[in-house]
Amino acid sequence: MTEVYGPPNFTDWVDSAWREGIGVWGVSIELTPPLAWDPKDKDAFGGSEPLAFVNMETRQVVVNYSLLHEMNALHCLPAVLAHEVGHHIRFPHTLGLAARLELLMARILPGAPRMLLNLFFDLQVNEYVGHTHAASLQEVYRAFSRRAATDSPIFAFYLAIYEELWGLPPGDLGKHAPSLTMDATYPNWEIEARMFAQTFWSLPDSTLQFIYFCSIIARYLTGHEGKQGKMPMSGDLIRPTPDDYANALGGSRAVDNAIDEATKKGWLDAAKSGEIKSKDALAGLDRVLSGMPGNQAAPFRRAIVNKHYYRLVEEHLFRVPPMPNQRPPDAFIPSTTEDWEWGDSPSAIDWTASIRAAGAMAAAMPLQRTLLPDESDKKGHWMPHIEIWLDTSGSMPDPQTSVNAMTLAAQILAAAAIRKGGRVRAVIYSWGDPLISDWMQDEAKARDFLLNYSGGGTDYPFTLFKEHSLERKDTIHVVISDSDYLYNTKENKNYHWFMDALDRTEMYIALLQSADGYTQTALKKALEHPKFRLILVPNFTAFAKTASDLADTLFGVRR
Amino acid sequence: MNIKALLAEIAAAPPYAGLDRAIAVAILNDLFRKAGGTPLPDPAWDTQWRAIHAVLAHWASTTRFGESTVQQLRRTQKPEAGYRAFNEAVEALNEELILSNAFRREEILRHWAAAWGLAIEGETPAESKKRLETLDYRRTLKEFARAEESRKSEEAARLAALAAAQAAEEAARGWRE
Predict the structure, then answer these.
(1) Residues of B in contact with A218 (CB under 8 A)
(2) How far B131 CA lies from chain A's nearest CA (Å)?
(3) In this structure, are residues A166 and A140 in contact, taking their beta carbons and an 8 Å threshold?
(4) Whole-angstrom Cα distance, residue B93 to residue B110?
(5) Largest CA distance in chain B
(6) Do the beta carbons of residue A191 and residue A164 sit within 8 Å?
(7) How close B101 gets to chain A, by Cα (Å)?
């Protein structure tokens, strides 16, 4: 900081304001005191100056003291800090909730800016902080709109909500730009703000509040919100982690219940609520990633998608273990007999064997057997090697934007094999050069590799299969494709060496989504081969279940 | 009547869990008796009774709401006219709204005060009237219906604007990611 604002004992003053801000929430927590805003960071805020915000990476509260000073609102610092602390400890209650609501927003209001989520949590925070510091918050908003009249309908409406909440005259907090003809463009907007203020805070949970917020605020969205600057304290929401988003992608009963309740109350129409519930969860990720630099967005998306697929794979492979008291005893087998000696456990004596060996002298020279762990299944243990040929032609969606049933099936098979100590190699093909992985033993690595996608036409790489069949002969090959595979097979001019290559496999399984009567004809010759197996999947949604059943048959993952 | 204090007391009071009509009527009638007036006769209750009266009776027995009413209630007050005016003013309210929404609680207290001519502490009559107009749910609902109509007529344009914004963003994402 180059200049010093506020009283001479600046540090003490900030410290006291910080403690007051934390005190508003009635909790005892240790947070790093606020740092001063560095004007050099202006570019990161699109040239605008934030009043206060939370650094997304360090989660550090940063305050623009010079702006507060300029706005003549330095004395409002405790309220500003209480607001920031509120985001840390109460609203959002968890980052998981923030992620859930962000993805819900992408489904209710596709195209709406992320800033809305921040405004939503600000409403919750400000209502609470307003119990004790309403006057300071009002001053901050007034001072901010004095600097630049808002030309955004959303901000005009948003400030009208606070005017209603705090019983202020209309227009007291926000000055509109002359170009913003709210009355003409949005008739009865002020009564809508009144109704909102009198309804929003009485709703029983955050998700329902959020749907109500979206349903009302939608009227004031123009599609240009990102270019209209920011409200004070509106860029201070911490971004959830990929884990939070991945969990949120799995859906939640709370969200479904809130959607039903909102539909009942008329905030969503029935058709829209059905559409929201059935929308592919991954489709909302574009909204989550908007505004993020490209070099960060891609890995962030990949991390979220990876975890989402992991959860889906687990749904098909994981089986809840039985209760401990129902657990069968570990397998033991009795050893050969040996002499029992003093000090050995009497329960180890095998009296039948002793009498047979020593007759009447058995009591003097008893024999014992001990129980040894049964390791018979570990001897000569078969380590599955599975090679997965995944068709990612354009007829299937990119697994990163929508759940791709064939990708999921491949991940289920890979996870199952690896959990049985096996190794997996994946070949992702469509048209042109396929993507080939190494032999993988790491489940996460395999899952990540299988998220690759090529698009375009389908051309099964027969030559590559031949090469791979020569490398090792104990491999199970699984092709995951649809009816395109049949056409590839039909067009294959070198069928004889395909049949030879089949000889060099442990097994070759075609897992195909095809209701085509042509299947049997196209695969006639292959079906005659003893190592060729065909599994027809009735529809794409059945892929995961079929893969799970296949994994169980091959590797016994459910046992 | 100190509205702010009463609202705080109501929030801290034991939650309302239903009250038999006969008990609720007895509690409310007692307010008039304590003020030296005449309570509403039983036959009149048949026409004036509303479920929200039971909530008021609960507040009268758990907070200073009853006491505040008794303090200012005039002996000459005609209960039937007062209940009629009150019922008309609160026709848009129901138990659920009152119990779940702080604004509606404030509104019903203010309507109660207005019906019996009770002064609100710390406010001039004009200020009280203005605040009640702001809170009047019946009026808000009527005006809100007009806002709803406007909103519906703007729906198509709004959806088009959002779709255009999304399309523009998706087009930009091509080179960003």
Answers:
(1) 158, 162
(2) 8
(3) no
(4) 13
(5) 82
(6) no
(7) 5
B165 contact residues in A (CB cutoff 8 A):
111, 223-224
Quote the mean pLDDT of chain B: 88
Identify the three-state secondary structure at position A437.
coil
- The pairing of beta strand A385-391 with beta strand A423-429: parallel
Of the candidates A149, A138, A167, A160, the residue with the CA atom closest to the CA atom of residue A79: A138
A109/B162 touch (CB, cutoff 8 Å), yes or no: yes
pLDDT score at B24: 96
CATH architecture of the region A385-555: 3-Layer(aba) Sandwich (3.40)
Q: Rounded to whole angstroms, what are the CA distances from A25 to A51, A89, A356?
A: 21, 8, 81
Name the residue among A106, A559, A166 with its Cα closest to residue B103.
A166
Q: How confident is the model over A182-203, as pLDDT tens digits? A: 888 888 898 899 999 989 998 8
Predicted confidence band at B57 (pLDDT cuts at 50, 70, 90)? very high
What are the sequence ranges of the domains in chain A?
10-288, 333-372, 385-555
Parts of chain A with a pLDDT under 70: 1-8, 41-48, 56-57, 149, 223-238, 291, 293-294, 318-332, 373-382, 516, 557-559
Report the distance separating Cα A432 and Cα B172, nearest Å: 28
Tens of pLDDT, residues B94-147: 998 899 888 999 999 999 999 999 999 999 999 999 999 989 999 888 888 888
B177/A298 CB distance under 8 A: yes
What pLDDT does residue A44 have? 61
Q: Which residues of B touch A290 (CB under 8 A)?
A: 169, 173
Confirm if A551 and A317 have CB atoms less than 8 A apart.
Answer: yes
Tokens 């595979």 -> residue:
A485
Question: CA of A481, closest CA in chain B: separation in Å?
Answer: 28
Six token digits for residue A495: 């069928």
Residue of A nearest to B163 (CA): A111
Contacts of A223 in chain B (CB under 8 A): 161-162, 164-165
Residues in chain A: 559
A221-275: pLDDT as tens digits? 876 665 555 666 666 666 788 888 888 887 788 888 899 999 998 888 887 777 7
Q: Which residues of A are less than 8 Å from B102 in CB distance? A: 201-202
CB contact (8 A) between residue B164 and residue A223: yes
> Which residues of chain A neighbour B100 with C-beta distances below 8 Å?
202, 204
Instruction: Sheet containing A61-63: give its strands across.
Output: A35-36, A61-63, A52-54
| Residue whose C-alpha is closest to residue B61's, from B96, B113, B25, B37 | B25
Contact A206, A124 (CB under 8 A): yes
Three-class DSSP category at A333: strand
* Distance of alpha carbon A348 from alpha carbon A361, whole angstroms: 18
Contact at CB, A111 and B165, closer than 8 angstroms = yes
The reply to whether ipTM tops 0.90 is: no
Could you tell me where the DSSP H helices lie in B39-136? 42-48, 51-62, 65-72, 79-89, 95-100, 102-116, 125-135
- Report the residue of chain B nearest A286, measured CA to CA: B170
Residue A167 CB neighbours (<10 A): 13
| Distance between CA atoms of residues A200 and A161, nearest Å | 10
Name the residue of chain B whose CA is nearest to A197's CA.
Answer: B103
The pLDDT value given to residue A246: 84
